[in-house]
Amino acid sequence: LDIAFIVEGSDNVGEENFNIVKKFLERVITGMNVGQEDIHVTVMQYSETVTLEYSFREIQSKESIIEKVRSIPYQGGKATNTGNALNYISKHTFTLVNGGRQDVPHLVYMVSSSPSTDVITRPPRSINVIPIGITPNANIQELRRISQPNNPIILHSYSTLIEEAPELVLQSCCSRKLWTEIPELCNKPMDVMFLLDGSSNIGASEFEEMKNFVRAFIESAEISNTSIHVSVLQYARENNLEISWNVPQETEKLVEMVHSIQQREQGPTRLGRAIDFVVQNAMSESHGGRPSASKVAIVIVSGRSEDTVEAAALSARMNRVSLFPIGVGNRYDEEQLRTLTGPSAANRIMKLQNFEDLSTMITLNSEFIKKVCMDPVRECIDEDGNKKKPGDKWTLPDQCHTVTCFPGDYTVLESHQINCERMPKPVCHSNLPAVKIEETCGCRWMCPC
């Protein structure tokens, strides 16, 4: 693995923050297996121009590189010519004459906190760029374009560069082959729907992070007719199918459509109603659902649902829709998440501290996509988590539904609810009107004495 670090050294950064960047480089390089037969490192600084601080041709040992990093002078400069820096990398950095190896993956980490002051041309796909953007001034959309098909690491301040970034970099570069495309994990048709919370509980930046997560998934997974199709539903007071499976299932087209989704902020969170709408309506063939495809709903939850989710979760299970709830923050109800998955699939639940962690979950490794692509549970399991055999029949806790397990481990739900409002009222001999009697599973009419 050949790794290039290119760090911004413009006037916008300042010497104090530049020294933090140097400490970050020291920590990351300390954690890497640097050596002649292992990882090779080069370090550059850029602003108006590019300065090569340590090349691949120099001794590839941690001690030598760290000693040089500590002595790098802060360059300064009025411009942040990111385009020029990336052009330099494309044309020079990984070439044989500059010590690059042709038979290893090429990875670039670019630390930047300013929008580019020149035009950017993304390096060839053989060079994987992972920008580390520091807000509030970094242009996240610009960094996202540079990094495709990977994703940038976004931090909130230079101080978090030392606290959080070294581990993120080491995980992404050295714990798996991020620089190669995620293999065809989903080698079967799978219809995936994302449910985004558009309620008034969600801020504008949080909604953008949810969209970034969907885009990251689309860019990392294999979108094709033999694999994954993606749709998006926004839920709150009303349910809005923003993207259906009927639209062209092409990566660039889907990313563009996700980008244009606007938050509707329609009142409270009604998750039960949203899932019911998804199962009964949005996942139908009329909306592009493929009869042969597994159905998956990835549900982002940040608050407690104002309606119940039990019946909707049950309906999803009975209709073979696998629910993957992602709880973000600390306001959601864990019990509701467990209800969504059912006792047999609680490992589908993901819990994150911040909305920013959504994209990182895709950026760092392929575990989440693997989890989604694994065959959904194909066993008959009752509400207490007990396995059932074909021919077994059991009654649900509401006493109004029975479930039967059939060969092939699929279940059929039978309702015993009676809506007497739809039945004709009896004509009573006493000439008195029939009286409605409420019962556990509905109602019935009875003539008064």
From TrEMBL:
Residue ranges of domain VWFA in the record: 2-182, 191-372
Pfam families reported for this sequence: VWA (PF00092)
Annotated CDD domains: vWFA_subfamily_ECM
Name recorded for this polypeptide: von Willebrand factor
Organism: Cathartes aura
Upper classification of the organism: Eukaryota, Metazoa, Chordata, Craniata, Vertebrata
